[in-house]
């Protein structure tokens, strides 16, 4: 299971990466593996705002539909347009081309509550 040390993680299997003044958000390798083949991604609109743990969309796979929950309070500044035509990118490259949102943090303190790669690895091992 790939768990990059440079990212922060939520207990809901999403990752956060600092990207200049903004943050990228996506689902983890563990999440995409559990979901199976992803066939559709419902994304929010640019400008939408979400509280920490607020639902911002969903991922549909051949197995199930899972809600996407914001790992930090944020305002959406960009959504990944590639996911509309190629949702399977979440399976093939969850930490790269499979990013879901680019956001501005609206509560920086939320970042302190995210898991390190080591803590996330422990969570995955217990799953």
From TrEMBL:
Domain Lipoyl-binding: from-to ranges: 22-104
InterPro entries found in the cross-reference section: Biotin_lipoyl, GCV_H, GCV_H/Fam206, GCV_H_sub, Single_hybrid_motif
UniProt keyword terms in alphabetical order: Lipoyl
Entry note: cofactor: Binds 1 lipoyl cofactor covalently.
Pfam short name (any one): GCV_H
Required cofactor names: (R)-lipoate
Domain of life of the native organism: Bacteria
Biological process terms in GO annotation: glycine decarboxylation via glycine cleavage system; protein lipoylation
GO cellular component: cytosol; glycine cleavage complex
Modified residues (N6-lipoyllysine): 63
PANTHER family per UniProt: GLYCINE CLEAVAGE SYSTEM H PROTEIN, GLYCINE CLEAVAGE SYSTEM H PROTEIN-RELATED
Subunit structure: The glycine cleavage system is composed of four proteins: P, T, L and H.
Family of the protein in this entry: Belongs to the GcvH family.
Function: The glycine cleavage system catalyzes the degradation of glycine. The H protein shuttles the methylamine group of glycine from the P protein to the T protein.
Protein name according to UniProt: Glycine cleavage system H protein
Gene name tied to this protein: gcvH
């Amino acid at each position: 299971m790939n768990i990059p040390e440079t990212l922060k993680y939520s207990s809901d299997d999403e990752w956060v990466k600092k990207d200049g003044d903004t943050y990228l958000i996506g689902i983890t390798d563990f999440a995409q593996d559990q979901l199976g083949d992803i066939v559709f991604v419902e994304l929010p609109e640019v400008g939408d705002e979400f509280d920490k743990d607020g639902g911002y969309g969903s991922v549909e796979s051949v197995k199930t539909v899972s809600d996407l929950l914001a790992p930090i309070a944020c305002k959406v500044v960009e959504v990944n347009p590639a996911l509309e035509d190629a949702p399977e990118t979440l399976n093939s490259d969850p930490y790269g081309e499979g990013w879901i949102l680019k956001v501005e943090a609206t509560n920086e303190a939320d970042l302190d509550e995210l898991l390190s790669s080591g803590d996330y690895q422990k969570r995955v091992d217990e799953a």
